[in-house]
Design goal:
This protein has about 300 residues and is mostly helical. The protein is built from twelve helices and no strands. The protein has one domain.
Length: about 300
């Protein structure tokens, strides 16, 4: 009978149940994406830009940026208000302000690095940092975002102060020299972030903060005659000396020619070493995070 000859599609010899199962499984895997431990060749791999973007998104839920910018603006307003009532030599006013800002930078970096290290610890024992495909890219994203925030805070510390000094009629520096001051603060603190971040991640928030405190104390100590010949290779001293050295070189009439030549040489060494130390600190951080084992060397 014809009706008897009609085979059910499910029992047709031309269809293979195994193939249909494989097809469905393949489709379901395509929807689910790569399984843990697998790398998808078609999906976007983790890149440095993606890591930075992820860190910026995480920082949106924190008030850290607002606190730091507010702290910088508060310091600017205090000094401008003081200088509006008490008049000193404009060169001295600028130098004192830059030495104070540069000296406090290691402390602020220590506090921020301690905060970030504690945040990563609370996220499952550094799981958010160490479980990603590339530890180096993850840590680089964290530190680059911190460097960007540091640049912003430095800009807020210098820009409004320069504008206020100009409004008071006490601005001794040109726009180009103020840009050099800003660059001195940025390069001077570039090495502090990777070094302090490694210490905070390896030994905990307390050690990161302690590193910042000792760094600021050392930086202020080296602003005296004790640091005249040795400050240029010590990271905590670089922000204040590089930034405050700009007005000192511009006001060259205060020093004899021989003393000015020596001061200019040491300043040049400081600028070169700021770049060298920043590169070395980044290399150290990348090497360290590749071998980092959570819980070792940490309380």
């Amino acid at each position: 009978m014809r009706g008897d000859r009609v085979r059910s599609p499910s029992t047709s010899p031309w269809r293979h149940p195994g193939r249909s199962g494989e097809t469905a499984d393949r489709r379901s895997r395509g929807k689910r994406g790569p399984q843990p431990g697998q790398t998808s060749s078609s999906g976007p791999l983790m890149t440095l830009i993606g890591s930075i973007r992820a860190e910026v998104i995480r920082q949106r839920h924190s008030r850290l940026s607002v606190v730091l910018i507010g702290f910088a603006l508060g310091g600017v307003l205090i000094f401008l208000g003081y200088y509006s009532f008490v008049t000193y030599d404009p060169w001295s006013e600028v130098t004192v302000y830059l030495e104070l800002v540069g000296g406090v930078i290691p402390l602020v970096v220590g506090l921020v690095c301690g905060f970030v290290a504690e945040r990563e610890l609370q996220a499952g024992g550094y799981a958010a940092l160490l479980s990603l495909p590339s530890r180096r890219l993850a840590l680089a994203g964290v530190m680059i975002q911190m460097e960007m925030l540091y640049v912003l805070v430095a800009l807020v510390s210098v820009g409004p102060f320069a504008l206020g000094m100009a409004l008071w009629g006490q601005n001794p520096l040109s726009m180009g020299l103020w840009l050099q001051v800003l660059l001195g603060l940025i390069l001077g603190g570039a090495a502090l972030i990777p070094l302090t971040m490694v210490i905070a991640l390896a030994w905990g928030r307390q050690f990161g903060i302690l590193t910042g405190v000792l760094g600021s104390l050392l930086g202020y100590l080296l602003q005296t005659g004790l640091g005249d010949r040795i400050w240029w290779f010590l990271p905590p001293a670089l922000p204040s000396h590089l930034s405050a050295g700009v007005p000192a070189l511009a006001d060259a009439g205060r020093l004899a020619q021989g003393a000015m030549d020596g001061y200019r040489t040491v300043q040049g060494l400081g600028w070169v070493m700021s770049i060298v130390l920043a590169l070395l600190s980044w290399v150290l951080a990348m090497v360290w995070v590749a071998a980092f084992q959570p819980g070792r060397g940490r309380r």
